[in-house]
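FAQ: What does a ligand-bound record look like?

Like this one, built around zinc ion:
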Amino acid sequence: MRIAHTCARCGFDLSRIHAPVEPIYGLPVVVCPNCREAVVRRRHPVQARWRQARAATVSIVLLGATVVVAAIFAGLLIGLSVGLRTVIGRAESRGDVFWLDEEVILIGGLWSGAAVLAGAWLGVMLPHWRWWAVLPLWVVALWSAMVVSGAAEMMRIVARGESVDLVSLAWLRWLEQRGAMALMGASIVPMTAGYMVGRLGAWHAGRVRVRRKWRHRTAMRQRRHT
Ligand SMILES: [Zn+2]
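The answer part, i.e. the structure of the complex:
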């Protein structure tokens, strides 16, 4: 949208004239080429409101994307934790040293890679969050996904009309999955490493952006003075 801006004194169209930021008050000022009147460039209120609406939409979409991608990572880590526990158990039952087993190395690599990426994603998307708030959130997300999937299975059994002792079934599930749950808890370690890297990256990018803006402003000021 093209802004409408005319000279307050002579009515000359100023909308195409560049408005450098005046250094003392920090306002964008246009000098009318017709009558030399200095006029402060103001944004039209409709344009300002549109900009605010756009900023709000962008932040909502970003938050939604953060949650969706974090949920995908959580699902991936649950699957990889169960898989890793399974291949460790298989190697142990063969009497092998499990950390030398090829399957364990492969799935363990995927498991730690997914945890690092999940952490980096959260660090980039939520850099203003405190790490001690993000990490428990991650544990809660993982474990509640596990509980929900277990509860869904029990609901199916109940819906089929089979009589079953839900408490002992839950206990059995826990005994079956506790190795995988321990691995899920342990994924906090590579995830924290990824989170730190992501946060550092976001912090660095922020500094670069601020510096670029500052350089841009200084260049404008110099252009005005020469
Ligand atoms: Zn004028």
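Follow-up question: can I read anything off the structure? Yes, for example: The two ends are 31 Å apart (CA to CA).
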